[in-house]
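INSTRUCTION: Work out how this chain folds

Fields: amino acid sequence; protein backbone structure tokens

Chain under study, with its fold:
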Amino acid sequence: MQVSSIQPVFKLELNHKVIPRIVTIAKYDGTHPCLTASAGYDKIIIHHPHGGVVSGRAQRSQAHGEISELSLSQAVVALAAGSLRPDTNRDMLLIGSPSQILAYDVHDNTDLFFKDAPDGVNVIAVGTFGKHSEPLAFVGGNSSVQGLSWQGTELFWNVVSGKLLVGSDDFYIRVLKNNQFIMEIAETGPIVCLSPVTEVRFSYGLANGTIGIYEEGIRLWRVKSKQNALALQWSGEMLACCWNNGRVDWRDGATGRVLRRVQMRSGAAAMLLADYRSMGIPDLVCVSDKGEEEDRLAITELFNKKQALMIELQHYESNAASGNINMDILERPPTAMPTNTKLQVAVNASLENVSYSYNSMLD
């Protein structure tokens, strides 16, 4: 099987090491995307390539003019961002420490809330859920899920309504509805990443290097690698998987077969789907643990065009096999005569020659 390779459409150096999995992309001014990542125990970096200068607590980096640094007094274990406040479309930055969570307005340099998390903080996500139409901050702890409003009010603990997909260290993937487990799927290792595909389909990754796809509780396929999956993203009909060694592969969503593959120069820290170039289309942004940032999803359009041309060629070959097209025409080698060749024609004025030629044409 031949696996195609692709090149990034842009690449840049952040000049900071990045902690794997603690990365997000947000629009703090409501317009320009900024990559935000943990660059150490208590330091956060914000990359603002589109001119949206970050001020306040964040200080301009001496190593990179497009990066600002935000120093905290606690370890950073989780990052997320989203439009929490109902009066603005700007994203708020959510910072998780081992026992607390901070909601910070980067643009206005103000704290929305600072709240204790007795059950710990493992992961944070922003979105709507169940009967709550306003965006909430979901905090996944050691054994519970907490939902917080933009003011830090706890609207629920675990689940009140709707459905929630949860992966845990006890090897189970669980679906909860109305505070009850409606589905439990036993796996072969701790769940490290989940990514939705449709309402009934999702992809998953385990700590032992296994990735796969489930649909309505039935496993469609799974594969196992010596590396660990860092992130999964659904793109078209393909599943993009970023591995901890810096390899990114695109797999057929129906079979898991590898279609394309690339290798970063160092280990991976994150893979996110975002319109980072502000072109109106989402890009697959890959970040290495050494601070290299690459954008690869735009190549998908070229791959699709190639596939369309291959299908068109197959149609020509099918028509030729049925006799509709003369294959001699398709296989005829091009002439060796250059396109700029000049021809010189000499005309003999002999009446005998003219008469002979005319008579030959009549014959």
About this structure: Residues 6 and 262 are 6 Å apart (CA to CA). Residues 329-335, 349-363 have pLDDT under 50 and may be disordered. The first strand starts at residue 10 and ends at 13. DSSP finds three helices and 28 strands in the chain.
